[in-house]
Amino acid sequence: MKVLGLSFGKKNGNTDILVKEALYGAKEAMPDAEIKFINTVNLNIGRCRGCGACSTQLEKGKDNVCIFKDDFQALEEEVRAADSIILGAPVYVLQPVGQFKDFVDRFSCRHDYSAITWVLDKRRTGEMPGNADDFPMERLKKRTVSYISVGGATTDNWTSMGTATLHFFGFPPMMKVMGNYNANAMGHVANPLLDDELISDMHEMGKRTVLGLNDDSVEFFQPKSKPEGVCPVCHQRLITILPGTTTVECPVCGIEGTLSIVDGAVKVDFSEEQQQRARGTFKGLREHTEEIQSFGAICMPKIMKNKEKLDKLMKERIREFDETIKTI
């Protein structure tokens, strides 16, 4: 078994300390596991440029590699090799640092379980070029993951998008989430090693992350000192209210629930049917794949029908803009 710890924080800082403590817990639960730790702060990971090369290659029967070469590839290979992952990132302004999002934007499109299997099925039927058996299938293997968001504010809503955003990493490849921990109030704690309960929580979450890989009876880690989540899938407390109704959505999972007031307290019920179509499930991801695949039949005919008009409008707009606005 291979366990990977990823820290997007500064070296030997609070995020490093917490991720490493979770790895100690993983090692205790699985003494024979191969444990690796990577701090990403000095890695060069550029943003996704939206070029579409990865999708185009997949549709042409090739592996959907990223054509821009930097440290992304090496980090991606480590994630692919791992069975269980502990991922931590600091929060400076409401959500994790930008390097994390840059990595996820390039990682997700290469590891979307539904999109990949959709293409492989079409290769098997001959509808798309390429041999399905040549694809690196370790992309689709089962993995577990736990998330640690680290912030200084004692007011936890200043880190409200921390663990919620970290979930973006795991749902495209359908990783099984075993815990998410908002380690805020570092401004008072000073150093995680001074908080015995926090260190104990990290240790326990690390254990469950590895034990949950092959044992579905291992429960999601919910720290006693933290409020329970509203969504039963991602365990976040965020909801989006749909105006004029009692219907709400989990902005992380994309599932609908019904809001009610019971004994003066807000309650949200998410049906089993909705939970089964959360973004981190095959059904939820397939909904998105089918939506994306439908664009071609709508978008391309529209563009071709208006090609001359669009060419003229674009030239005029570019000329007008260049004459009036300074472009850097």
Question: Which terms summarize this structure?
Answer:
single chain, 328 residues, alpha/beta, six-stranded mixed β-sheet, four-stranded antiparallel β-sheet
Structural account:
- With 328 residues, the protein is α/β, with parallel strands linked by helices.
- 41% of the residues lie in helices and 17% in strands.
- The chain has twelve helices and ten strands.
- The protein has helices at 14-29, 53-59, 72-81, 98-111, 113-124, 162-170, 186-189, 196-211, 272-275, 282-293, 295-305, 307-324; strands at residues 2-7, 34-39, 84-93, 95-96, 144-150, 176-183, 240-241, 247-249, 256-262, 265-269.
- The strands form two sheets. Strands 1, 2, 3, 4, 5 and 6 form a six-stranded mixed β-sheet that branches.
- Helix 1 links the parallel strand 1 (2-7) and strand 2.
- The radius of gyration is 22 Å and the shape is globular.
- The N and C termini lie far apart (50 Å).
- The model has no long low-confidence stretch (mean pLDDT 94).
